[in-house]
Amino acid sequence: MKGLAVVASAALVAGSAWAGPQSAGPPPVGSPHFAQTPPPAAPPQPAVKPIERQAALPPPKPSTPTDPIIARYSPVYEGCMHKAASTLDMIDCAGRENDRWDARLNRAYQARMTSFNDRQRGALKRAQKAWLLFRDADCAAYEDDDWGTISKIDASQCVLRRTVERAIELEAFPADHGPG
């Protein structure tokens, strides 16, 4: 009996026979009992719906900016910027809005100048000249050829913003406080 076990063991090592799943160890590769498990099937993919052509979307509702200066820009400006297709269009939008605010600034300036005495007018005139120099120098710093055409938009936005700020300041500027 002992010899028979050695012969059966040698036959298994040589790969000549395999007794099936009851025996110890896997079947030899290539034998009819060697079962390769197929790779797992990919999960089913959802059917892709074709893109349907939609009617033109309505224009987006104007956003409510959190910046108090930008919140003062006109709806005309927002509509212009929404339609702008190029850098030049955006600069033109900012220029038109700036023209509206510059007219408002000038009305506020003239109203203050007519209500002030000579000393007050002189002080406001000097302040306005200094402000113009500041605005122009500050906003020119936003534009540089190395930064591309976006810098031209940034510079025009700067001029607009500074003009709006100054118009608001002049409108809130103290009117004549009475005889001085």
Strand count, sense and closure of the main sheet? Answer: none
Specify the CATH class of the domain at 74-172: Mainly Alpha
- Please name the CATH topology of the domain at 74-172: Substrate Binding Domain Of Dnak, Chain:A, Domain 2
Strand content: under 5%
Terminus-to-terminus distance: 132 Å
3D shape: elongated
Q: What is the count of β-strands?
A: 0
The level of helicity is 40-55%
Number of helices: 5
Rounded radius of gyration (Å): 41 Å
Mean pLDDT: 79
Describe this structure in words.
By secondary structure, the chain is mainly α. The relative contact order is 0.09. Helices cover 54% and strands 0% of the residues. It is elongated, with a radius of gyration of 41 Å. It has a domain of 99 residues: Up-down Bundle (Substrate Binding Domain Of Dnak, Chain:A, Domain 2). The N terminus is likely disordered.
How would you summarize the topology of this molecule?
Blueprint: H1 2-14, H2 75-83, H3 87-115, H4 118-140, H5 150-172
In short:
The protein is an all-alpha fold and 180 residues long. The chain has helices at residues 2-14, 75-83, 87-115, 118-140, 150-172. It has a domain at 74-172: Up-down Bundle (Substrate Binding Domain Of Dnak, Chain:A, Domain 2).
